[in-house]
Structures are given as C-alpha cells and as structure tokens.
Amino acid sequence: MVNCMPKPKVYVTRDLPERGLKIIKERFDAEVWREYAPPPKKVIIEKARDVDALASLLSDKIDAEVFDAAPKLKIVTQLAVGFDNIDVPEATKRGIYVTNTPEVLTDTTADFAWALLMAVARRVAEADRYVRTGQWKVGWHPSMLQGRDVYGATIGVVGAGRIGYAVAKRATGFDMKILFYDVVPRPEIERLGAKKVDLDTLLKESDFVSIHVPLMKETHHLINAERLKLMKKTAYLINNSRGPVVDEKALYQALKEGRIAGVGLDVFEQEPTPLDNPLLTLDNVVVAPHISSASYETRSQMAEMVAENLVAFFEGRKPPNLVNPDVMKVRPLSKLF
Ligand code: GLV
Q: How many Å lie between the centroid of ligand 1 and the Cα of residue 35?
C-alpha cells in the first residue's frame, strides 16, 4: 500500500475481536456493523456497492447477488475455517479473492467436539438440569444418571482433516480404538494407529461417531436415515462441522425410536435453530449454538488472520489463507496493484 493512495474500503460485517479489528481500522477505511445480530442481506448488498473488501462471517450469505452489487469488490476475508456461505466458484469467476482462517481453530474445535462427546456420554447437561430442577431427592443411587464409558471405546472420525486428526489424537489419551473415513489419503491419522474404513463400516462399528467434513454438495445429508440405521443402539453421534451434513429429521426419528443412544450438536440445519426443533425435547441431545471455536485466544487469532489476509492482499501479496488460488489466473495480483 502506498501511503499517498486512499486507503482501501472494507466493510466488516460484525464487531471482530480487537486484535484483528485494530489492524483493520488502522490500515483501511473500515466500516463495521456494530449490532450483535447479523446485518440483513440487503445491508450487505448496500455496503458492498462501494467497498474493495468484505470481512464476512459464516452467517453472511455472500453470493452472486452481493457480487453483482459490488463492482469494486476484490476480496472477501472470512472469519471461519468453513466457507460454504460464500459462492466461491462465482467469486473466482469474477476475480474476487476469498480467504478463511484455518489451523488456529483446529485444537479449540477438537476440544469442543470432545466436550460434546463427554457431555452426552456421561450425561453432564442432563445431570446439571437434574440438580438445578430439584430432582436430586435421594442422596445417591447406583442407577442414577448412568452413561457410557468413553475410555476404551471405538471412535469413528468422519473426515480426517486437521480437526478430525486433532479429535483422534485426543482419543489416543482415552485408549480408544480409532476408525476413520475420508475420501483422500490421510497418513497423519494412520500414524496415530487409526484404521481407514468405509463409511458404513465406521457407522456399524463405532461407539462414537464424530463428524468433521466441510459442507459441500457431496456431504449434504451425508448422515441420513439409511446411514443412521447402521449405527449401534448404544452409539453416539457428535457434529460440530456443519448442520446440513446430518439430516435432522432422520436424526430425531432415530433418537425417538431409541436406535442410537444420543447426540451432541454444535451446528444445525437452520441457525439459530428454532425453539420448536423437536431435537430440543430430547434429554439425550446436548446442544450448543455453534461455538466450537469460541475461546478468547482462538477468536482473537482468527480476527488477526482476517486482518493479515487483508493487509497481504492490499500490499500486492498472495493472502496467506487464499481458498480459491485459481482466482490468481483470472485476476493476477500484478493486474490489481
Ligand atoms: C466455524 O464453524 C468455522 O468454520 O470456523
């Protein structure tokens, strides 16, 4: 960025953690949506008209409608590892760069998958409700709130990328047998002793099935009614990837009919999930509002990465977390700056 040039304009769709926002405000002509709730799409479209960059969140739909309104838009920098909310092929076609925030959230997200797993297997959320609502009337009873052992059980990791690997790594500390399913070779997880199997085998043999795939056409309802039927009656499903990877109606049916033991969900087909989602009526369902990467440390690092991607790009360098490298053929940096 040359000092005498006007600063590039950035629209930031939410109040990001200060570590990243401070850099963005110093280096760019930035406008920030300050409300807690997301900006309506029409606001994003309106703001996009005049900006060089959008700093988005996973709850913002960034598609052709936004790009159509944004003749100067050059980059979308998202605070998330997932970017299924962005029409990336459309962005690439138009020469718009797209970045995400991978790696910094891997361990935090894996920790949360484990938090859900432990919570549902050992009935932590139920136990909390039990105490608070005055159901704890007798001192101690051998059958009170029995759950299932985690140590020594079999975990099936669906999608063995960075987060799936980190979940499996934690499982070694619990002396678990680890199975995994992926469509690409994953030597790192195999080095942990994990065994590659097909998805059906994984579902049939696992006591805990933990999902770590991105949302794509191929993974939409990957866990559907048929596949849920393969799971053991005593098995648990954990999903902190993306809601639509699991068919929620089929999941409810499986739980209601006692065909699986429980589920831990941080993500939903619709977010926020409506209060009348029947899953919320079941005690063996542990839920959270899409907070798997929500630690102070990680969210700060994610915001800093958003800033770093913006700074690199507007200095004419390849942004470190570019998700659509083909865009560089459509609109090389040398033509932009
Ligand atoms: C969170 O879900 C993310 O994709 O970072």
A: 20
**Per-residue pLDDT reduced to its tens digit, 313-332:** 999 999 999 999 999 999 99
Residues 6+ apart with CB under 8 A from 206: 154, 155, 156, 179, 231, 232, 235
Q: Using alpha carbons only, what angle is made at residue 240 by residues 238 and 241, rounded to the nearest 5 degrees?
A: 120
Ligand 1 atom 5, closest CA? 80
**Residue 128 and residue 41 share a domain:** no
CA of 301 to the centre of ligand 1 (A): 13
Determine whether the shortest distance from the Cβ of 81 to ligand 1 is under 6 A: yes
How much distance in Å is there from the Cα of 19 to the middle of ligand 1? 19
Claim to verify: residue 150 and residue 29 sit in the same structural domain: no
Domain range for 30 is 2-102+295-335
Residue 99 pLDDT > 80: yes
16 and 74 share one domain: yes
Active-site residues: which are they?
242, 271, 290
Q: Is the CB of 213 under 6 A from ligand 1?
A: no
The CATH number covering residue 178 comes to 3.40.50.720
pLDDT digits (tens, 9 = 90+) for 266-297: 999 999 999 999 999 999 999 999 999 999 99
Residue for token digits 């648990």? 236
Query: Quick check: 270 and 243 in contact, CB under 8 A?
Result: yes
Say yes or no: CB of residue 278 within 6 Å of ligand 1.
Answer: no
